[in-house]
Design goal:
The protein is an all-alpha fold and 456 residues long. The protein has two domains: 237 residues, no CATH class; 207 residues, no CATH class. It is 85% helix and 0% strand. It contains 17 helices and no strands. Helix 3 crosses helix 6, helix 6 packs parallel to helix 9 and helix 12 packs antiparallel against helix 15. InterPro entries: DinF-like (IPR044644), MATE_fam (IPR002528), MdtK-like (IPR048279). It holds the Pfam family MatE.
Length: 456
């Protein structure tokens, strides 16, 4: 990466705080690039699917299984980004730029070590992991091949999470956007060249993705390291700093685990309802996930801005940020709800030609759309509390909301009617009950002051 561009980015970061713009401008300045980076990541899976899909049914089915495992591993490690963002923003707000970059460097060392362990474990256990999903021999062989060729990219992907978290904490979401967008293009080119040009088949897709992830990690690491050197932060691994990052990330790991378990439970219930309901659920989940990226971008802005304000001990600004980001979240959720529900009959046919699946998906999407404003509230409050470093509460609240959701999900599986009504009831349970439980717990916490710990 060009040194001049790096200096320009770091100069922009260092200028933050001299003349702070209005809250709305700060929110948008962070949220819009963050949204771009978030959307760029799923393009990896879409490109892989498009390229591998032309190899045949077995390779595409194998990719579906392998990518599910990889996305689960990466999803559970998202705490590397969240914990780093909060810690770096807090130190920057306290005026300790050197300490902020030191936290970022320590988080990246943790990501590298964890990534190497997970890459080795994934490579070695690939046949067992795929076998546990019950795939046929031909599909299993394709899945294991992809999983093993892509596993070396895990250290890179985890480094991307940690370095992105560090840059977000420094109030820079543009650099991760540039790197993510570039990576999406490079990944597409490498996949085509390796799969078809080099004749590697599905192995080429896995290798292309791994190489892209490693390249993105190098690019982001260069930016963070350059900033660390300029501020006087140490680059060598420090056991104390790495351990502190691990401790800070553990509650967020538990919180993410509760979300993943809720999603897996929802898929299990949809499977039990029948093939039509499961197919419709896949459509609804895909649309919900895309809407969640937009709301998560606001949560990322809340993380960085709240952490920065708490570090500066500016409690009135924290309250102002909380109020305004919640307004943005609810408003964005309402707008997305209108699009998701109001236009469902237009875009659902793009996913399926089966009339019964269409009807089920549309019914569930209308239910999900009604809950979108509440989802915006939940996502933003999540970001606020993560930015405040309130991970322990989020861990307990996550498990508590999962406990609340379980009986409702089980009731749907046992008593819901077939077809569209059954899937609508399932999404009423997930997007309604589960999200309401999250809204109540995080809203109760935000009303108090226990989470507003100021200083570095």
């Amino acid at each position: 990466m060009h040194v001049l561009w790096i200096r320009e980015r770091l100069a922009a970061i260092s200028s933050v705080g001299h003349r702070p713009p209005g809250i709305d401008r700060q929110i948008l300045a962070l949220a819009v690039p963050a949204l771009g980076a978030l959307v760029a990541e799923p393009l990896f899976v879409l490109v892989d699917s498009a390229v591998v899909g032309h190899l045949g049914t077995a390779p595409l089915a194998g990719l579906a299984l392998a990518s599910t495992i990889l996305m689960t591993v990466i999803g559970l490690c998202v705490f590397l980004a969240y914990a780093t963002t909060a810690a770096v923003a807090r130190r920057l707000g306290a005026g300790d730029r050197t300490g902020a970059l030191q936290v970022g460097v320590d988080g990246m060392w943790l990501a590298l070590g964890l990534g190497l362990v997970l890459a080795a474990a994934t490579w070695l256990s690939a046949p067992w992991l795929i076998g546990a999903l019950g795939a046929s021999d031909e599909v299993a062989q394709q899945a294991v091949t992809y999983l093993r060729w892509s596993a070396p990219g895990l250290p890179g992907m985890l480094l991307v999470l940690a370095s992105t978290g560090a840059l977000r904490g420094l109030l820079d979401t543009r650099t991760p956007l540039v790197v993510a967008a570039t990576g999406a293009v490079v990944n597409a080119v490498l996949n085509v060249v390796l799969v078809y040009g080099a004749g590697m088949g599905i192995a080429g897709s896995g290798l292309g993705t791994a190489l892209t992830q490693l390249g993105m990690a190098v690019a982001l690491t260069v930016v963070v390291v350059h900033g660390a050197r300029g501020s006087g932060a140490q680059l060598r691994p420090a056991a104390g700093g790495i351990w502190a990052n691990a401790r800070a990330g553990t509650p967020l790991f538990v919180r993410t685990l509760s979300l993943r378990l809720a999603i897996l439970l929802t898929v299990w219930v949809a499977t039990g309802l029948g093939a039509v309901e499961l197919a419709g659920h896949q459509v609804v989940a895909a649309v919900w996930g895309l809407a969640a990226f937009a709301l998560d971008a606001l949560a990322i802005a809340a993380q960085a801005l709240v952490g920065h304000a708490l570090g500066a001990a500016d409690v009135p600004r924290v309250r102002a940020l909380l109020r305004r980001t919640l307004q943005w979240g609810v408003g964005a959720g309402a707008a997305l709800g209108l699009l998701v529900g109001g236009l469902s009959w237009v875009y659902v046919p793009l996913f399926t030609t089966a009339d019964d699946v269409r009807a089920a998906a549309v019914a569930a999407l209308v239910v999900a759309a009604v809950t979108m404003p509440m989802a915006g509230w939940v996502f933003v409050l999540d970001g606020v509390l993560i930015g405040a470093g309130d991970g322990r509460f989020l861990a307990w609240a996550g498990m508590a909301t999962l406990v609340v959701y379980v009986p409702f999900a089980l009731a749907v599986r046992e008593a819901a009617p077939p077809g569209a009504a059954g899937l609508a009831w399932l999404w009423a349970a997930f997007a309604g009950v589960f999200m309401l439980a999250r809204a109540v717990t995080t809203g109760w916490r935000a009303r108090g002051t226990a989470w507003m710990v100021t200083g570095a």
